[in-house]
Amino acid sequence: MVQREVTVHPRTATCAVAADYARRVTALPEPDRDAAAALWSAYLAAHPEAAELAPEYDVDFYGDSVELADELIGLVIAGGKRATASLVDEFRHEGQALPRIGSHWIACDGRGVPRVVQRSIDLRIGPIESVDDAFAWDEGEGDRTRADWLDGHRRYFTRTLAARGVVFDESQPVLFERFLVVWPPELAD
Questions:
Q1: Are 63 and 101 spatial neighbours (Cβ–Cβ below 8 Å)?
Q2: Is residue 101 scored above 90 in pLDDT?
Q3: What is the per-residue pLDDT across 54-72, written as a single tens digit (0 to 9) for each?
Q4: CB 123 within 8 Å of CB 101
Q5: Which residues are within 8 A (CB) of 130 and not within 5 positions of it... i.e. 6 or more apart?
Q6: Angle at 54 between CA 50 and CA 56, to 5 degrees
Q7: How many H-runs (helices) and E-runs (strands) does the chain carry?
Q8: What residues pair up with 104 in beta bridges, in sequence order?
Q9: Are 173 and 157 in contact (CB under 8 A)?
Q10: pTM of the entire structure?
């Protein structure tokens, strides 16, 4: 796999952290949208009612590198990860609408291969400090404690925003999302 160069805008002191991280990981490829469309079609063939409730879907990765995407999709596939958190700012930056209850997204592994169709079942926006023990557990990362969740997400948000020349501020709204895996059938909840 070819490692892509990641551009880091040196506007803040935390950019050094983002630059160091970018040198040690592999940037994400484009997702395989044709394979995602085939996965979505298979899901709709088995569950035509899903198209009535939410006919669109997004195709995306967990994390900001091949390595992190593979680690996190592995947790989803193993069943331990049924929640995720993102900065609302990231949706704005990418020009994406916020998810809604019942919306679907197809999560890819680090190679861009679609692995699962997920359906959002619970959404809440709040500051990072509003995360609770149950959400940290449901996200399935690290030791699954609130303290570990806060540490990991502060580092992640700081790093990803620094790569765009933006400073992370704990008052920035976070989207807390719970989901179900709905396809393929052998992985569905």
A1: no
A2: yes
A3: 889 999 999 999 999 999 9
A4: yes
A5: 174, 176
A6: 110
A7: 7, 5
A8: 57, 119
A9: no
A10: 0.88
